[in-house]
Design a protein that fits this description.
This protein has 13 helices and 21 strands. With about 450 residues, the chain is of the alpha/beta class. It folds into 3 domains: about 120 residues, Rossmann fold (3-Layer(aba) Sandwich); about 240 residues, tm_1862 like domain (pyruvate-formate lyase- activating enzyme); about 50 residues, no CATH class.
Length: about 450
């Protein structure tokens, strides 16, 4: 290139998307492009989209308009799950120059270089999702205190509400050797915490090898991966981003409890506390199994944090079904909820199911779950006051960060730099739910990291 081009990135959606955007930024930097902030006004904008909610199109349009206001002559490139599912819809958004599907995403630099020689708008490069059988590595670095490390992609589950299998393809994984090497590189670069991400990370090991165009069976299991990662020197702690309850085995729970570096923090999707609704969703567990998993985690780690995804207003969910969910969550020793209002996704079985719940009622149920979540979070925080726990400091004023068991704290008295891992005393809970803490010299044996 005659003159260096600037490129700005915007990520919508999950931790997996953040890891992939960060990897794309490194690719463009290696090609001579200069990554800049979104607000700086760039020559090229790359938007990595999500498809989980029905607002994907609205959010994408908003970001495109913002980019063009900042840089009217910029080239606009859109990729990600929404781009794979609805490329024509995105290509029709005014200002979009190029749409890249799931397989094409990791060749974005090649396509952008071709785009710069073209005057066409709304170009689409999105192949069939069933052709994707290779794992593309990704991890974030330099844009956050911690790193998101992608260990698995795609999903073989057939949940009736979900578009992810059509957006990301079949389940496939990296190898243990490659992930250990990536963790070692991140440790050498000064990263203290790694969050393991994927679409269905408990399914790790499937599709690690492809022979004659076919994915091979599991070459390893998730338990094998976390055992290997736990031995990497220099990483202070790992978090498991989310794991299906049927795949969160007692073996995994027991290992995390005894591990040197794995945080006592689990995020397990429930989606519904009603077995009738779970069957409609085609989830692979019952409410009883979910309860068993929560009890196992608390048996091994009473101080563990447990987060829960839950969907309100799924087709056929009566008031009785919703109350089953609410009462189950109220009784469980979980720490916080991520409630989602059900939204119809095109071409999913759930969208055509009878018994669609009025949208206002879906939102009302979500609000009830949000209130319950806040009560759960405050109760969890309150139970740990007076303890000393390790915190990874982050950039903000006042200084703060997360404990190993995912308690958000503020440290108004500290001048320690971001990236520092230090023990703190959890002193008090403010009216708005913030935990105030003070740095300590060392951890007590009663409150290990």
């Amino acid at each position: 290139m005659a003159t260096p081009k600037t490129i700005a990135f915007h990520t919508l959606g999950c931790k997996l998307n953040f890891s992939e955007t960060s990897s794309l930024a490194r690719q463009f930097r290696q090609r001579g492009y200069t990554p800049v902030s979104f607000q700086s006004g760039a020559d090229i904008y790359l938007i990595n989209t999500c498809s989980v909610t029905d607002r994907a199109d609205q959010k994408c349009r908003q970001v495109v308009r913002r980019a063009l206001r900042l840089s009217p002559n910029a080239k606009i490139v859109v990729t990600g799950c929404y781009a794979q599912l609805k490329p024509e819809e995105i290509a029709a958004i005014p200002g979009v120059d190029l749409v890249l599907g799931a397989a094409e995403k990791f060749r974005a630099a090649d396509y952008v270089e071709q785009l710069e020689k073209s005057t066409d708008k709304g170009l689409i490069r999105a192949g069939e999702i069933n052709r994707i059988n290779l794992f593309e590595p990704a991890w974030s670095f330099g844009d956050r205190t911690r790193s998101f490390l992608k260990v698995q992609d795609g999903c073989d589950y057939k949940c009736t509400f979900c578009t992810i299998p059509r957006a990301r393809g079949q389940s496939r994984s990296s190898s243990i050797e490659d992930l250990v090497q990536a963790a070692e590189q991140l440790a050498a670069a000064g990263v203290k915490e790694i969050v393991l991400t994927g679409v269905n990370i408990g399914d790790f090991g499937k599709g690690t090898e492809v022979l004659e165009g076919r994915r091979q069976p599991h070459q390893a299991l998730f338990i094998d991966l976390i055992r290997a990662l736990d031995e990497v020197e220099g990483i202070a702690r790992y978090r498991i981003s989310s794991i299906e309850p049927n795949l969160c085995t007692e073996e995994i729970i027991a290992f995390v409890a005894s591990a040197k570096r794995f945080a006592p923090h689990f995020h397990m999707p429930l989606q519904s506390g009603s077995n009738a609704i779970l069957r409609k969703m085609r989830r692979r567990y019952t409410a009883e199994l979910y309860v068993e998993r929560v009890q196992l985690i608390k048996k091994y780690m009473p101080h563990a944090c447990i987060g829960v995804d839950v969907i309100s207003g799924f087709p056929g969910e009566s008031e009785k079904h919703f109350l089953e969910t609410y009462q189950l969550l109220h009784s469980l020793e979980v720490s916080y909820l991520h409630p989602f209002t059900y939204s119809e996704r095109p071409n999913t079985p759930a969208a055509a199911m009878p018994g669609q719940v009025p949208f206002a009622e879906r939102q009302n149920r979500t609000k009830q779950l949000q209130v319950l979540s806040e009560k759960k979070r405050r109760s969890f925080y309150q139970a740990h006051l007076g303890q000393i726990r390790p915190v990874l400091l982050e950039h903000h004023q006042p200084a703060g960060g997360f404990t190993d068991n995912y308690i958000r704290v503020e440290l108004p008295e500290t001048t320690l730099p971001a990236g520092e891992l230090c023990p703190v005393l959890l002193r008090s809970l403010t009216a708005d739910g913030q935990v105030l803490a003070s740095p300590q010299k060392e951890l007590t044996t009663e409150n290990p990291g």
